[in-house]
Specification:
3 helices, OB fold (Dihydrolipoamide Acetyltransferase, E2P), five-stranded mixed barrel, 184 residues
């Protein structure tokens, strides 16, 4: 039988424990700060749900997510070309060249809806009557309509029939726009 005789110095043990704890906390803080700075760099690059290099078709399934993302971060989307379908909707204080390309968003289980959409500008906007379904292609610009507002400058517009999926649904709380996000 072996007997070991330890003499434990409480002060040294306590100091060693405190030093190790402080080092562990510093490592954790360094990792968190590193991730915050790297994450902010990546989010600046990946803040767009619409890639910059092509015409992006907005689908019914992500319509309100894209609409919300563009309204929340207009500057990130200026210059991006989009294409989508909706109906012409006008309010009294719009100019002759403006209309809202609208969709009806279901807000309750008994199918109550509100009108949502992008404000659009087109030189011949008066050629299209209210409630006419159209497919547009245009470029997002930053404009002013009761404050900063994304405005789609239409480059191509054509009348179309009402789609089978005419209603859209509220934006998802879990939606995070990224540059790899597929619009279809």
């Amino acid at each position: 039988m072996f007997v070991f005789n330890f003499k434990v110095n409480g002060r040294k043990l306590f100091r060693t424990f405190i030093i190790c704890s402080i080092l562990l906390l510093l490592i954790i803080v360094f990792i968190v700060i590193f991730r915050i700075f790297i994450g902010s760099k990546n989010s600046a690059k990946a803040s767009s749900c619409l890639p910059q290099n092509k015409i992006n078709t907005i689908a019914t399934s992500n319509y309100t997510n894209v609409l919300k993302a563009v309204h929340d971060n207009i500057d990130n989307y200026v210059g991006i070309q989009i294409s989508f379908t909706g109906y012409v909707y006008r309010v009294l204080d719009l100019s002759d060249k403006q209309f809202v390309l609208a969709r009806d968003m279901i807000i309750s289980s008994d199918f109550q809806s509100v009108i949502v959409g992008f404000l659009c500008e087109y030189d011949k906007a008066n050629d299209f009557k209210d409630n006419t379904w159209v497919n547009i292609t245009g470029k997002i610009t930053k404009g002013n309509y009761h404050g900063d507002m994304p405005i789609v400058k239409i480059t191509k517009i054509e009348e179309t029939s009402k789609p089978n999926d005419e209603y859209v649904y509220p934006p998802s709380d879990t939606y995070i726009p990224t540059e790899r996000y597929s619009l279809k």
